[in-house]
Design goal:
It is built from 8 helices and no strands. Helix content is 67%, strand content 0%. The chain is mostly helical and 180 residues long.
Length: 180
């Protein structure tokens, strides 16, 4: 954000409702309307761009669930079972993580990507069972990361393209006229 001339404080204040809903719902797709609203109304990205970019990101940008979590989990499982990883294994982890983050559905859980990563590396699939007990808690954080990224990328791209419009502060919603 800083390297693109955007305020992190303003971004997170504006995107917080979507990030918070992603955290509690554990679903990037469920937060889609709130994420679109935050990107459009609070961050000033034009609807013509955000209507494409945010749903596209919600279906292809799963950094938390498909990139970070399976990679760290594979390292954990390898260490737990005392299995050494070599340079080629780390390259496979990166490859599976990058491709997986573009192909994972925006639904709760990351067991599919975890088992794919473990089986690609030849690690015991039983290692996934070690993580299932705490997975719902971890999934909350993973989804919050996903949603933050899904709001971040359209904001940065729109800013670089000069599309950002002047918006009200994130903590002040438009006033509703009172009748009667």
């Amino acid at each position: 954000l800083l390297s693109n001339g955007l305020s992190p404080k303003r971004f997170y204040a504006a995107a917080w409702p979507a990030i918070q809903l992603g955290f509690v719902s554990r679903s990037s797709i469920a937060t889609l309307p709130v994420t679109e609203d935050a990107v459009e109304r609070r961050l000033g990205v034009p609807r013509a761009y955000s209507a494409f970019a945010v749903p596209f990101a919600a279906t292809t940008k799963m950094d938390g669930c498909a990139a970070i979590y399976p990679a760290i989990s594979a390292l954990f499982v390898a260490q737990y079972y005392g299995l050494p990883l070599h340079v080629g294994d780390y390259v496979l982890i990166v490859l599976v993580s990058v491709l997986g983050s573009a192909a994972t559905a925006g639904l709760t859980g990351a067991v599919v990507m975890l088992t794919l990563t473990l089986s690609t590396l030849g690690l015991p699939l039983e290692g996934a069972g070690l993580l299932l007990a705490i997975d719902p808690i971890l999934d909350m954080g993973r989804t919050a990361i996903n949603v933050a990224g899904q709001a971040l990328v359209p904001t940065i791209v729109a800013h670089r393209a000069g599309l950002i419009t002047d918006t009200p502060p994130a903590d002040r919603l438009p006033e509703v006229p009172q009748t009667g």
